[in-house]
Amino acid sequence: MSRYTKDYQMNYDIDWFFTDGIHYFHVASNGGAIPDFVNVDRNSNIELQNRIANSKIVTNDINVIDNPNGFNYSSFVDFAKKGFISIDKKNDGFDSQNYFVVAEPSNKQIKPDGVDDLIPKLSEKNRFKIHIEDIRNELLW
Amino acid sequence: MNLYLLRTYMDLQLLLFDIPNLCDSVIRLRKIRKTKNPKSKYKDQDYPAIVSRCCEKEFVYCVSKPFNSFYARTKSAKNPNAYRNMQLISAMNALGGIGKHPVAGGCNNKIGSCAEQHAAELLLRKNPSCKLDKIFFSNPIRPRTNEPRTFCDNCVKLFKL
Hints:
The structure holds 2 protein chains of 2 kinds.
Chain A: H1 6-11, E1 12-13, E2 15-19, E3 24-28, H2 42-53, E4 62-64, H3 74-81, E5 85-89, E6 98-105, E7 131-133
Parallel strand pairs in A: 3-5, 6-7
Antiparallel strand pairs in A: 2-3, 4-6, 5-6
Chain B: H1 3-17, H2 19-36, E1 47-48, E2 51-56, E3 70-73, H3 86-95, H4 115-126, E4 135-137, E5 141-142, E6 147-148, H5 153-159
Antiparallel strand pairs in B: 2-3, 2-4, 5-6
């Protein structure tokens, strides 16, 4: 099983995914570190990316963060329509664990299509430190 | 025109004429790879973290010829053929050596991995007589969102930005 090397993680903006059993998250790595419980097998993440790219839209009812600077959030919007709470890493260093929600389905408990067997699951054993700000800048996690 | 305005003007030209196209082409290429072969294990299927474009300062005024510029993305400095220009290699060695962290500290990026440094190498291959401090860089951009980024300490020192 191959893993993402540190060099690769620093040079690429990788899409990775996880679930806590209720919510499904998509994360843009923004050149930052990927947690170990996801970075067990790179091919499994690639398989998941491909499967989600070809999966169907489950809702068009989504919320998107204010965008006064006109950045392109279409990538995050696409994932939110497919049922993921789509979060981005803040640009504050490789190892930092500060994230913010960019787009999310209005019904946060909606289920994406056909990812259950592959998506990494958070458990007590692999719980990692992560700080996520929601769309109203309040700490979600 | 004072230096600040000139700099802003040059940035604007590159930003308006080049970078959106550059980001689009990065995204388009990624989609084509995924569509053609969804099971591909091709390692480049993720977005690059940052892309940058550079050109010689004289060319900045040629707005109608944006293709005189070169762009590159962040990538590993491990490839021994990544850098061939002796001027750039010796400047990098003075900082600490390709693929290593700078001796003086202050920057987390390994020398030679930044998009700016790869773009400069492409430019210097075409025009070896160009001096490092005569290279102009557009602001580095994150292709996923078009967010501008800042130059890192290594690039500031290498190219006197």
